[in-house]
Amino acid sequence: MIHVLLIIFIITLFYMAIANRLMTYIKVLALQGVLLFFVVFFQLSKIDPFNLAFILLETIVFKSLAVPIFLSYLLKRNNITREAEPFLPNFVSLVITTSIVVVNILIATVIKDDHLDKIFFVVALSTLFFGLYLIATRRKIITHVMGYMVIENGVFVLSLAIGNEMPLLVNLGIMLDIFASVLILGIFMNKIGDVFKDVDVDQLSNLKDY
Amino acid sequence: MLSILLNLIAALFFTGIVIRTKSKASGRKGPGIMQPIRDVYRLFRKGSVYSETTSFIFQLAPTVYFASVVMAMLVVPFGKSPGVLSFYGDFIFFAYVLALGKFFSIISALDTGSSFEGMGASREALYSMFAEPAFFILMGSLALLSGHTSFQGIFASLHIGSQISYALAALATFVLLMIAMIENSRMPIDDPKTHLELTMVHEVMILDNSGFDLGLILTAGYLKFALYGALIVNLFIGVIPYQYAIPAFFAIQFLMAVAIGLIESFMARFRMSHNPQFIVVLTSVSLLIFFGVLLILQKFV
Prior knowledge:
The complex is a heterodimer.
Chain A: H1 2-18, H2 22-43, H3 49-77, H4 90-110, H5 118-137, H6 141-161, H7 167-195, H8 201-204
Chain B: H1 2-25, H2 35-44, H3 56-75, H4 90-111, H5 115-146, H6 151-156, H7 163-183, H8 202-205, H9 211-237, H10 242-266, H11 275-296
């Protein structure tokens, strides 16, 4: 069951690579939260119920409800146009995402370590690199936040592989990350949205001395 | 032999059911289930008109196209019983004999000298080219999973048992269905109802064909749908005894026809520039199937 969920997780990455609208990105992020909820539910069976409940609550409330709602609020609040505006064509994005996954699988087969749970490793690293790729190739600032959320999901998947041993520590760190990123960038967005009408990374290059 | 018989029966009704579903979904009564067959029968009684600028290739191509589909039908098995031909690597034969037919329909479209037909031919070639790796990666991973290299061996020894293989079967069904839509030039890729040459893909290629030739091409299209449907059915029926497998065959073909009708009713055609990326998604999904197979075989974890 965990394998099935993780495969669906990778398919969401492919979908994100070719999606056109920002609302689609947000929906995919929410879906990833739900998927992670079930992965946690099946994977962390050995930890005590209180911790499990805490982690489940974190995934369902923050990853799949609070953050997507907050991001869509930001979209409305700042009148951001609904197109994602990538620098590269979607086709190239898809090819690159596929090759990221393939390269990670090759890396995982090369590593000969019995303690490593390879499917978690592959999904986590692919998600991480895909998040970086998303940040690098999209024009708007809010997509940077989304790329950051994708990276967070990747780190979360990686921590789930060892989650049975050290649960609370990892998740506190991740939750702090979520809070910090969304709040800081949200405030940042609000300010920029008030000053400039169009939130575009290209305009940041105008902030220099003449 | 059984598979050919079943395929022919399924092909009789398949397109009719698709058209009927579309008319029901848009609130019309719609033509009868057998209307496509009646159309073809009418076309078969007519002669053909050939343009003076075309050569013998244009007259040859519809026959080759039809024959290629019939050849492909020979290798498709039905559960335990093999197709008429069954040999090692017959899924490669299946793909390339269909490609041969497609090649002839492409050069016959170029042969007419019409610029629209050349454009349609170029698009059709591009989409088939992108769909090919998806099909081969899918069949290759199924061959790896079952340890056989013929259709019959693959499908007869495919055990759908664990949860991950359910996921793989669902993904494989999705990929095969979408390949069927691409190969038959149906809705998300191509609009069979359009009347504008610029947006046609398959329809523009057969604009100059008439009468008997057009009938051959249409019949080949119906057969092709049933072929891919039969492949999907084979994924599931495996070693089930015939008294359950034959009703299951028709049930799954019927469901597939209804699904195609619903997709055509509720989806718009993609923009031409979005089609290649959609088709490459199929390749990515097949790659995932491949790694899922590696996961089942313990070659990876």
